[in-house]
Amino acid sequence: MNGRVAIVTGTGQGLGRAFAKGLAAKGAKVVIAEINEAAGTAVADEITADGGDALAIATDVANSESVNNMVEQALCAFSGIDILVNNAALLSKLERKPMIELTDDDWGDALQVNATGAFYCARAVVPAMQKAQWGRIINLSSDTAIFPPIGATFAHYITSKAALIGLTRALARELGSDGITVNAVMPGATETEVNRSAARREHQMVHVVPLQSIPRVEVPEDLVGAVQFLASDDASFITGQCLPVNGGIAFI
Ligand SMILES: NC(=O)c1ccc[n+]([C@@H]2O[C@H](COP(=O)([O-])OP(=O)(O)OC[C@H]3O[C@@H](n4cnc5c(N)ncnc54)[C@H](O)[C@@H]3O)[C@@H](O)[C@H]2O)c1
User: Fold this and answer.
1) Whose CA is nearest to atom 2 of ligand 1?
2) Which domain range does residue 162 map to?
3) Which positions ≥6 away from 169 have C-beta within 8 Å?
4) Does residue 252 belong to any structural domain of this protein?
5) Position 92 pLDDT exceeds 90
6) Is residue 250 included in any domain, yes or no?
7) Residue among 147, 229, 242, 127 nearest 185 (CA)
8) Of 8, 15, 90, which is best to mutate to test ligand 1, by the most ligand atoms within 8 angstroms of its C-beta?
9) CATH number where 223 lies
10) What is the mean pLDDT of residues 190-195?
11) Spatial contact of 81 and 5, defined as CB atoms under 8 Å apart
């Protein structure tokens, strides 16, 4: 991956941070596109301190002007854009509610950031990828999009993640002849550095982990290899696929 330029969105914490570090470790130059400027800069500094190449650009993926500006800055700083990891999402900050209590704003915000934001980012990077006739777009969906847990009270989030499956397949069909692959990764419930309530932790240990073929809690590092692979030359004939990385939950 030496010399490839990768944009990873939502990179200030959690999975995005792990993906940025994982791609930088393989030699990619990484653009940290994160709404929380301080968190994004801290991750860029971590990568640089480890000998990698990273550039933090404060970005709101829900705002097309902000996205276009980030891509312009990335193109000025580097020679092109080869890899886009659409990871930014409202997740840790999203309130779980029964569907009848979801407001217009709850619904609109989840769809705008999680699904429309991924579209804005793809739309902004595709011209550079078409020019190079090489590109990798990886969308972070969720296994809940295929198998929503009973009682999840998370319809806005789950719908936004299902939209990414449609986006993945539509773009894969449209962009394959340009050498651009588009795939999705579907994590299971993954323990990030975000504090989870004792009740959520207990729910995971009782209701999620026992369903997994590998019965332990998923961590961000479990997903990094899948993203590195899908971003690489080795995955050049894989497109439109949605890869569950969830310890083998039996139902998918
Ligand atoms: N952690 C899990 O259990 C899990 C499971 C399935 C799928 N996923 C998916 O993986 C991805 C990462 O999950 P996570 O647990 O690290 O999430 P997280 O909530 O911990 O982190 C999301 C990051 O995105 C940033 N962000 C939010 N809105 C943004 C915006 N408008 N523009 C730019 N950045 C923005 C946040 O500041 C944060 O740094 C998400 O797409 C999520 O839906 C996570």
Assistant:
1) 190
2) 5-245
3) 240
4) no
5) no
6) no
7) 242
8) 15
9) 3.40.50.720
10) 79
11) yes
| The one-letter amino acid at 178 | D
- H helix intervals, 98-209: 104-111, 117-132, 155-175, 198-203
Treating both helix axes as pointing N-terminal to C-terminal, what angle do 64-77 and 117-132 enclose, rounded to 10 degrees?
30
- The Cα-based distances of 53 to 7, 59, 72, 132, 195 in angstroms read 12, 18, 18, 21, 29
Q: Please check whether residue 88 lies inside any domain of the structure.
A: yes
Residue of 43, 70, 91, 200 best suited for mutating to test ligand 1, as the one with most atoms within 8 Å of CB: 91
Sort 2 into a burial class: Cβ within 10 Å, 0-12 / 13-18 / 19+: exposed
d(CA 49, CA 38): 16
Catalytic residue ranges: 157
Please tell me whether residue 123 adopts helix, strand or coil conformation: helix
pLDDT (tens digit per residue) in 113-148: 999 999 999 999 999 999 999 999 999 999 999 988
Which ligand 1 atom is at minimum distance from the Cα of 157?
A: 43
The residues lining ligand 1, judged by C-beta closer than 6 Å to any ligand atom, are: 9-10, 12-16, 34-36, 39, 59-62, 87-92, 113, 117, 140, 142, 187, 189-190, 192, 194
Q: Which atom of ligand 1 is nearest to the CA of 113?
A: 31
Our count of domains for the chain comes to 1
Q: Helix (H, G, I), strand (E, B), or coil: what is residue 136?
A: strand
| Predicted confidence (pLDDT) per residue in 20-60, tens digit | 999 999 999 999 999 999 999 999 999 999 999 999 999 99
Evaluate whether residue 67 is within a structural domain. yes
